[in-house]
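Spend some time on the protein that follows and explain the fold to me:
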Amino acid sequence: MKEKNINIEVVVISVIIVAAIAASLIFNPQGSLKAIDSLFGFVSKAFGTPLLWFSLAATILCAYLAFSKTGRIKLGDDNPDFSLFSYIGMMICAGLASASIYFSFIEWIYFYSAPALGLDPMSTEAAEWAPAYSFTYWGLISWPPFVLAALPVAISFYKRKNSGLRFSVVCEDLFGLKEKSLIGKIIDILFVITTLGGMSVTLGLGVPLIASFISFIFGVSDSFALQVIIVIVIAVIFSLSSYIGLEKGMKKISDFNIYIAIAFVVFLLIAGPTIFILKYTTNGAALAVQNYLHILFWTDPVNNGGFSEAWIIFYICFAVAYAPLMALFITRISKGRTIREAILSTVLGGSIGCMVLFGINGGFGMNMQLNGKADLVSLLNDQGVGSTVITILSQLPIPEVISASVFTLMLILFLATSLDSASFSLAAVVTTNLKEGDSPKPAFRLFWCVLLALIPLALMFAGAPLSAIQTVCLATAIPFAFVIILFAVKSLKWFKAEARLLDRKED
């Protein structure tokens, strides 16, 4: 086997660009924030409607590849490395991060208090439609781009035997470019910038919420020192998991995390208003399925209230920003799976998991609001996410500290597994000569783990707006939407060729 080498050029250029963005935010936060907001405003207006069509195209292409003859194609010759439970669990933990946990409790509040479709705020109709939006945004909006981006990489890696889990390799093979071409390097650099910035912000935004819960549980001050300790603890968890590998590291953590999450939501369902939650989730699911196109394409062209830009276009951008990361990770863990299994496990597994999570957690909170147990709408506006979720958890028939502790543990583990998958993908995209069954060097994965921890720490210390880097990542991720569709359509010839080979073997 050839020695796995590191593409130092891509690493250095990517880190310099991310460092320059971070430095700009630290030393000129107001000017940088204004420029970044203008950038995203321009992107959302110029590419908003095409992004809606991109989302639909991604879903249609996934359905076609899953249920056509190409769905039978097996990725690799060996048996799967992971059980179906672990396989889906690892994808859910990598794709959702900690954001899904706390958003599942409070996202309905936004759709209830400022609804779409011209509904009256805090009306019965707004309450019934609220879960439908969450189910759509965290379901068919988010998951199809992940697996659609993964399939060309998977075919290139497992069937065409191209070395390296890199989009540049796919690009060079698809378009007949020379190895290590300029276009290929640009694609890899964009990948590293988007992933490094986006995941650093995920850590940076998740940590303050965890800090608020730690402060509540132990009665300590919510300070920068506490946030540093939390970042270090999370960094140690995902660094250790990263170092010992997918099979012994992330698989075990994600399995444990999924078990905790299942137990938590089942307890919430049984201990809470069970009938209301079931009806709330079922009704929301029906509205989401029946009105998928309406939800997706409601652009409010007459009033231009900004709902579409604030929510659905944002979520599409966020999915596209995460798609390259998830593509490499899904490719690596899908060895031995068919294309049909990969698509259905990702899209249906992820969507159903989100529906259960948002239906039960959101239904519990909605029932509190409707029955007057707490004014969660005002609480969220006045005191933020942490206080709102703690208030919701205080209604559970177990001590608040216990429920908050379990919730905090889930946040930490979801965050750690997401960052573990990010460190794997970052290391893989700049590692040459990776073959089937190979993984990047553990020491190099640790390098990315450290960098993922240092960037948000530096920004938090300087008081720089972490959301600004997220906005940069979303804006710069837009080109990947076109890359994903282009690669998927262009690689259809690969899928058809592999399907013909499979037909000949079966005859």
Summary: Residues 5-390+399-506 form a domain with the Amino acid/polyamine transporter I fold (CATH 1.20.1740). The beta strands are 5-6, 431-432. Residues 199 and 419 are 7 Å apart (CA to CA).
